[in-house]
Amino acid sequence: MIARLALQDLRDSWVLWAAAAFVAAAGAFVALVPATLIESAFPITDVTSLALLAIAGTVIAFTVVSLVIVMGSVSRATIDARRPTFGLWQIGGVLPGQVGVVVFSQVVVVGIFGAIPGALLGLWFGPVFARATLTEALGAFDAHVGPTGVLSAVGAVTLLVGAAAIPAARRAADTPPVRLVSGIAATDRPSSPGVSGALVVKSVVAVALALLLYQLLASLPSSVSSGGSQPLLIGPALVALMCLPGRNAMAAVARLWTAIVPKVWSTSFMLARVDVTRSRDGAAPITPFAVAIGLPVTFLAGTSIASSASGATGNDPTEGTMLVLFGPVLLSAIGGGASLLLRSVQRRRETGVLDSLGAGTPVMLLQRLWEVVIGVATAALVGVIALVATVVAEFWVLAVTHPETAAYVEVRPLLAVTGLCLTIGLAVAASGAPGIVRRSRR
Q1: CA dist., res. 180 & res. 87, Å (int)
Q2: In angstroms, rounded to a whole number, what is the distance separating the alpha carbons of residues 97 and 266?
Q3: pLDDT tens digits, the chain, 442 residues: what are they?
Q4: Is residue 323 a contact partner of residue 133, using CB atoms and an 8 Å limit?
Q5: Left (φ > 0), alpha (ψ -120 to 50) or beta: where does 227 sit?
Q6: CB 3.0 to 4.6 Å from 186: which of 12, 175, 293, 410, for a disulfide?
Q7: DSSP string across 263-302
Q8: Rounded CA gap, 16 and 179, in Å?
Q9: Which three-class secondary structure state does DSSP give residue 141?
Q10: What's the first-to-final CA gap in the chain, in angstroms?
């Protein structure tokens, strides 16, 4: 019965699950790049093999961080949108534990069916991209990937997707059915002296990341001389730490900077501000966009500072750097767009309410536009904070032992990735415009 219920619900609500499937496809597509590097390295007997494995390890680390953060945000928003249905199941006799099993199994099924086409597309893209970005630095090599790499990518993505969905599935199972049907989240319940499991997990991860940052900074001077990877990892670790609190923290950041805009300036902007900062899922796209923006800018800043400390010149990204950053940035940007798409599907009732109040089509269309702008601008602000913190921390540590260290910040990657996120967000907003126009004409 449980399997039949899960499959039937997937068929009935496939539009809501499409965003999660799209993220899983992007994750598998990106995962084929390190899979290509690993398979290509095995037949090689010289130092090129070690270089390929080292690059693959860095790509895997960044991709895993991006996928867990992005898929956690998307799966939570998807499951939250289905809360009324889960409440009806419990009222109809489905046990809370069975609800959790159904939700988890649905996420896993969506992850598998999303990862397979993404991996098949990456089967062609991975070798082509690896040759294009690494041939100049490492020389010609046989870049290839086979069925083993495809199966590994699909399996890894499915495992990460399932792990990222566990907290949301448990929350859906633990919330009383009356609250589920009414749309009240488990986190909306009155506070109790107990501590939630999710808070404990986040606290442990936050402490681990803070200790990792301390160790990376402490070993930074010696790593510059030995060519270690510490300067490259400090910024991304800081971005992961800043994005760990999730959408509630991002909503608070958006609330702070949008408060400077006068309320009489624009009705559509104020509606967008309330939706992003106050609604349950309005801030969900900010976290993936923040990862997409913060990851490359802090990574490149660390590279520039380490180069200056070692006496090297030049700050332009190499093709190898582009290979490392391409997958995580693309995955995070697509995840932000998927969250926006999911949000647009959920808000049909809100659009009807605004239309009945006489808001008008132009106001509703501008509201969608401002929501994208507020979300991407907030993500860019988080990325700038992470960038400044990375530059200041690394410069402060290195300046003592390496007086030639220079704090160099390149704004072009920040502008480029912010523009990419804004383009994806506006494309998603534009896709929902015809529906707003049709409903307003009724």
Answers
A1: 5
A2: 47
A3: 677 777 787 877 777 788 888 888 998 999 898 899 898 888 887 788 888 888 888 888 888 888 888 877 787 777 777 777 777 777 777 777 788 888 888 888 888 999 999 999 988 898 888 888 888 777 787 888 888 889 998 998 888 888 877 877 777 777 666 655 555 554 444 444 444 556 777 788 888 888 888 888 888 888 776 666 667 788 888 988 888 887 788 889 999 998 887 776 777 888 888 888 877 677 888 999 999 999 999 988 888 887 787 766 555 555 567 788 888 898 899 888 888 887 776 666 565 555 555 556 777 788 888 889 999 999 999 999 999 999 888 888 888 888 887 777 778 889 999 999 999 999 988 886 666 556 555 5
A4: yes
A5: left
A6: 175
A7: TTS-HHHHHHHHHHHHSSSTTTTHHHHHHHHHHHHHHHHH
A8: 21
A9: coil
A10: 41
Distance, CA of 134 to CA of 24 (rounded, Å): 26
Q: What is the pTM of this model?
A: 0.83
**Sole residue written with tokens 């990106």:** 30
With beta carbons less than 8 A apart as the criterion, state whether 99 and 86 touch: yes
Residue with tokens 């500072």: 305
> How far apart are alpha carbons 373 and 375 in whole angstroms?
5
